[in-house]
Amino acid sequence: MNILFIAPPAAGKGTCSKILGDRYHLKHISTGDLLREEARKNPFLKKKMEEGTLIEDGTVLSLLKKKLMSTMDSAGRIFDGFPRNLSQAEAFDEILHSLGEKVDYVFLLDLKKDVCEKRILYRLSCPQCGRVYNREVLSRKPSQEGLCDDCHCSLIKREDDNKETFEKRFETYEKETKPLLSYYENKKNLYKINADRDTEEIIKDMINLLEQKKYD
């Protein structure tokens, strides 16, 4: 089973990906994580990411294909943050086809721009476990200010979580990613999810859908 998420910045795709992946024993593949790992070795890539510029398809696909080959023995995968445009989607389908696989589900996490911005500007994360918090959203605040509930590590703010970078990222999403909706609608594997709710409600909808389709 291969699951994709399409979502604007801070819609919660990382969190949802991890929860579903754990439940169904799927590998969680985040292109953002792959790129950040690569950026630690590549100053030019690091600069582009900090500016919110869309990374070239060749770079993303190369990193992704390498990761795919290392997860061939898994029950399936969840892809977080990929594909970001139509050409990536088409190239991705070709890669999966060569492996005898396909995209099974595409979840669109639907969230308005103003809500995304608020989540981005006040977002904090744990450097150890990756759990995400928000200083301005009651249900997402840490129990103790500045500390992770699970690890008790000091929370950090990502360098690219600022208004200027958010505007560029959202503009990129509107321009490059939204055309994917028609692409996957035509393949009849796109499912729209209201992301302006608690994570538990969002996940429940996804699980219900996956379980229903399993027995159709």
Short overview:
The protein has helices at about 15-25, 30-40, 45-50, 55-70, 85-100, 115-120, 165-175, 180-185, 200-215, and strands spanning about 1-5, 25-30, 75-80, 105-110, 125, 130-135, 190-195. By secondary structure, it is of the alpha/beta class.
Can you give a write-up of this model?
The chain has 216 residues and is an alpha/beta fold. The chain has helices spanning 13-24, 31-39, 43-50, 57-69, 86-98, 113-121, 163-177, 179-186, 199-214, and strands at 2-6, 27-30, 77-80, 105-110, 123-125, 132-134, 190-194.
The total count of strands amounts to: 7
Structural classification: alpha/beta
Query: How many whole angstroms does the radius of gyration measure?
Result: 17 Å
CATH topology: Rossmann fold
Shape descriptor reads: globular
Helix content: 40-55%
Largest sheet: 5 strands, parallel
The CATH superfamily appears as: P-loop containing nucleotide triphosphate hydrolases
What is the correct CATH architecture? 3-Layer(aba) Sandwich
User: Low-confidence segments, ≥5 residues, pLDDT <50?
Assistant: none
Distance between the termini: 15 Å
Written as H for each helix and E for each strand, in order along the chain, the element string is EHEHHHEHEHEEHHEH
Strands of the biggest beta sheet: in what spatial order?
2-3-1-4-7
The helix tally amounts to 9
- Look at the structure and give the CATH class: Alpha Beta
